[in-house]
Amino acid sequence: SLFPALSTAFPTVFKAEDFTYALFLWARLIFDTRCITVKFPGSRDVTCLVPWADMCNHHANAQVSKPLLDDDAKHLVFSSIASIPKGAQVYLNYGPLDNTQLLLYYGYAVEKNDYETIGVLLEGPDEEDDPLASMKALMMAHCNLPTQHMLRGQETSFSPRLLATLRILLLEKTHLEAAAAQGIEPEVRAINAENEHAVLAALTGVVDSSLEAFSTSIEEDEELLLDEQSIRGFLRCVIIYRRGLKRILLDTRSIIEEMTRNLVASAGLGK
After folding, report:
1. I need a surface site. Which of 100, 127, 179, 186 has the fewest CB within 10 A?
2. How far apart are CA 62 and CA 134, in angstroms?
3. In this structure, what DSSP letter does residue 65 have?
4. Which of 205, 142, 134, 208 is nearest to 171 (CA)?
């Protein structure tokens, strides 16, 4: 509705032939795919277009720091933070971007991306089906727990906040009664064995359903990536991206299995 509403309301300012949706989309995509962050005076970061500087590719270990605006000289300062051999490519660090963002905005994916994540959106308490919904909502608010969480690769444990959220969401009345004597600190420890098994089962369901959604296995992706002649360009980046997601899910499964073994071996948990 913005187009042609702007031209209709302000025809002399927004001329219809210059302010079309197609041109707006072009301008937005130019900005999103070529913008960089510049440090302004007062340590204020501003995202803007900088011709020439936007030709620098991204690297997590870039040799050049974030550009700084010299307000007196009216120019940008690019400072090297590492030695740059003659003829070497100069990189900027676009920020802590996972492969979803890199693929969406810049059209490529990184083989080993330390910032790779998978979002997990949990359903909040349902007052129609859960008699404890109101109490769970209060507990989550008290602990400042969100329903949106992240899974990361190469981790050896889950975020305490993710576990705390699931422990509260999966609470049963019997769990509350069993834990009443020792108190409930969902970010610190399990509420009891039954509740913790439910948490791990829920996480297993997330992993299994996510892996089943892919049309290939991680082994098949590895096999495809060995074919450097046929699998090139954007297709190669997409396969790298989905393989990275599968690695996170498989790492998550390993954590679940380890926690399950520890839970079974623990004596007196929740008693």
Report:
1. 127
2. 49
3. P
4. 134
Please say whether the beta carbons of 243 and 218 come within 8 A: yes
Asked if residue 48 lies in contact with residue 36, where contact means CB atoms within 8 angstroms, the answer is: yes
Q: What's phi and psi for 152, nearest 5 deg?
A: -125, 150
Q: Are 256 and 203 in contact (CB under 8 A)?
A: yes
Tokens (6 digits) for 144: 């400042």
- How are the residues of the chain apportioned to helix, strand and coil, as percentages rounded to the nearest 5? 45, 10, 45
Strands 57-58 and 91-92: parallel
* pLDDT tens profile 88-120: 999 999 889 999 999 998 889 998 899 999 999
Query: What does the radius of gyration of the chain's CA atoms come to, in whole angstroms?
Result: 25
Centre a 10 Å sphere on the Cβ of residue 7 and count the other Cβ atoms it contains.
18
In sequence order, what E strands does the chain have?
A: 36-40, 44-48, 57-58, 68-70, 75-77, 91-92, 117-121, 148-152
State percent of the chain over pLDDT 70.
96
Residue-level pLDDT at 179:
64
Tokens 């949106």 belong to which residue? Answer: 148
For tokens 């300062």, name the residue: 77
CB 187 within 8 A of CB 163: yes
| CA count, 13 A, side-chain hemisphere, 182 | 13
pTM, full prediction: 0.81
Query: How long, in residues, is the chain?
Result: 271
